[in-house]
Design brief:
By secondary structure, this protein is α/β, with parallel strands linked by helices. The protein has one domain: 3-Layer(aba) Sandwich (Rossmann fold), CATH 3.40.50. 38% of the residues lie in helices and 19% in strands. It starts with a helix and ends with a helix. This is Carboxymethylenebutenolidase. It comes from Marinomonas pontica. It holds the Pfam family DLH.
């Protein structure tokens, strides 16, 4: 699997991240690393980076798959996501490399991970497994993130914000409760927010497939951005 993983995600892969400095001298030391959906880096993540920068924070939207490597068909997206998540060790190696590339030469930065759908899970894993992570925010991310092998190996100093659609079919109530129990057992400072009448992908303006549990919700999206802004202010 590791050889296949490298050929898909690492070998000869050229990436161009979207990076924008914060507009406030008091907040720009906070570097927000944005993990995309399973579709890869798009204008949506770039707009999120612009929004975060407008609040004063620095932001980098990561090019997860590489230039011209974004999957387009649903089967391709699912296959690529499956290969990415199949094994924790190569996955975390890639997450660490991409985080470093986003924050290279930024000594003294406070790193906060933010992600959407697949990216929500990746943000949680980066927050939990990397000691340099100060925080993580998941927007409609899955609760099947890899747990740390032991409390000693978990980054228990991180802060976590999970923003979830209560009608998201990909997050069962039992999944949510298990995740909350796990974070509680580690003593992690976390918030778990459910938005009523809200499905999966509620942040994505392009999401419009309610029969399959995925739909944009402008009110929940607005509220979620408010939660994000308040969360980032805790690191100032």
């Amino acid at each position: 699997m590791s050889q296949t993983f490298d050929s898909i995600f690492k070998d000869d892969i050229k990436r161009v991240h979207y990076q924008i400095d914060g507009l406030s001298s008091k907040k720009s030391h906070i570097q927000v690393v944005i993990w995309p959906t399973f579709s890869g880096l798009s204008d949506f993540e770039r707009r999120v980076a612009d929004h975060i920068a407008s609040l004063g924070f620095s932001a980098t939207a990561l090019d997860l798959y590489g230039i011209e490597n974004n999957p387009h068909e649903m089967d391709e997206k699912r296959a690529k996501m499956g290969a990415l998540l199949a094994e924790s060790e190569p996955l975390h190696g890639l997450l660490a490399e991409l985080t470093q590339s986003a924050c290279d030469a930024m000594h003294g930065k406070t790193i906060v991970h933010v992600g959407f759908c697949l990216g929500g899970r990746l943000a949680l894993e980066a927050g939990l497994h990397f000691t340099e992570s100060a925080g993580a925010v998941s927007f409609h991310g899955l609760m099947s993130f890899n747990r740390a092998q032991s409390e000693e190996k978990a980054n228990t100093h991180t802060k976590i914000l999970i923003l979830n659609g209560y009608q998201d079919p990909l997050v069962e109530e039992s999944d949510a409760q298990t995740a909350k129990g796990y974070l509680t057992s580690l003593g992690i400072d976390f918030q778990f927010v459910d938005f009523s009448n809200t499905m999966h992908s509620f942040m994505l303006p392009s999401a419009n497939n309610p029969d399959h549990g995925s739909q944009f919700n402008p009110l929940s999206a607005k509220r979620a951005f408010g939660y994000l802004a308040n969360f980032l202010e805790e690191f100032v």
